[in-house]
Every structure is written in C-alpha cells, then in structure tokens.
Amino acid sequence: MRGGCLLSFFSFGIASVFAQGAPAADPPVWEFNAHANFYFIPDDFFVLPLFQADKKKLHLEARYNYEDRQTFSAWAGYNFKGGNALEYTITPMLGAVVGRSDGMAPGLEVTLNFKRFTLYTEGEVYLDFQSSENHYLYSWSDFTYSPTDWLWFGISAQRIRVYETALDLQRGLMIGAGVKNWEFTTYLYNIGFEDPFVLLSISKKF
C-alpha cells in the first residue's frame, strides 16, 4: 500500500516537472469589430451593419445592405501588416454576395498610419451573376487626423449603390470620438450640393 502511494506521488511529480518545462501553447486570439452605419437620407433611412473577425493573418467579414438592399455578403481575406514610421495593414479579400443581388466580388482594404494621420480605404468590384450591366465599383475612403487618442476628424468619400445621387462620388466631412472599446463617428456628405445626407457610425471592438 505504501509502495503504491510512493509510486503515485513519484509519477505525479514527474508529470508536474514535464508540465512546467513544456512551453504553454498560446491560446487562439480573435479580434472582433462590430459596426452599425445609420444612413439618414432625404425621405429614407436604412442601416448597414458590418462585422469583422481577425485571427493573425486571417480576416473574415460580413456585410448587409452594402452591395444592395436586403443583400448579404461574406468575405475572407489575408492580412499583411508591417511598417515602422508608416504602419500599414493591407487585406486582399474575396466575397460572395447573395440576396436581392447575387454575385461575387474581389476586394481590398488598406489602412495607413503615419504619426497622427490615418488613411483608410476599401474597395470592391461587384460581379453580378445575372448581367454584366450590373457590375459595379464600390469604394469608401477616410482621411483623418487625431489631435488626441480619443478624437479624430477629416474628410470622406464613398461610392455605393444603395444610395446614389447626381454625384458619382459622395464626399463630405467627418468627426469621431472613442470611449474605451466604442467609437462614434458622424459623417456629413454632399454639403453644398444636391441630396446632402448624414451617416452615423457606431462600432465596438471586443
């Protein structure tokens, strides 16, 4: 009985030594970012939700009401990150589009950071399965300056199909603020032109 106890204690000790000596595997780390874009446009209102998930080089994304109303798109991409004074994240993607519009889309997202300046741009070429006449180039770009870590302002331009005007490119001003993992940004588009509208964007990282 005593020998069995000693053997058990010895085995437990050996296992503990090996457990301490072996490096612990890093747990999988995901980064999530949820957005809700509220479009307040003349005689209309709609919400464009967007969800992003990143794990190291892998980038996943889901959008609704982006390529068209009542249309969902799912994306997969690869993150290239680097830089020193100029930090960059470049993500080529491929998306599938289903709903009122059906097709596929190669896309690209780019973020450049230099000191307190940030350029973010995303674009895609939507390829419709039904007709080549429905092919469309989508784009969205923000150029901002951050005087503090929680405040930023700048200019923005976008080209999306869900809201089109006489202007080929919707352009405007933006200002945003961050509180912990929350960000709130207000866009004022087409000021001084026809069909001005407001976009309120809310996002949370977790």
Order of helices and strands: HEEEEEEEEEEEEE
Between the first and last Cα atoms, what is the distance in angstroms?
53 Å
Enter the CATH topology name.
Porin
Q: Rough shape? A: globular
- Unreliable spans: 1-22
Strand order of the largest sheet: 1-2-3-4-6-7-8-9-10-11-12-13
Mean pLDDT reading: 88
In CATH terms, the superfamily is: monomeric porin ompg
Q: What is the count of helical runs? A: 1
CATH class: Mainly Beta
Radius of gyration: 24 Å
Count of distinct strands: 13
What is the domain total for the residues? 1
Q: Which oligomerization state do the chains in this entry correspond to? A: single chain
User: Architecture, CATH level 2?
Assistant: Beta Barrel
Largest sheet, strands/sense/barrel: 12 strands, antiparallel, barrel
Strand content: over 45%
Q: Give me the secondary-structure category.
A: mainly beta
Portion in helices: under 10%
Protein name: Outer membrane protein beta-barrel domain-containing protein
Keywords: Signal
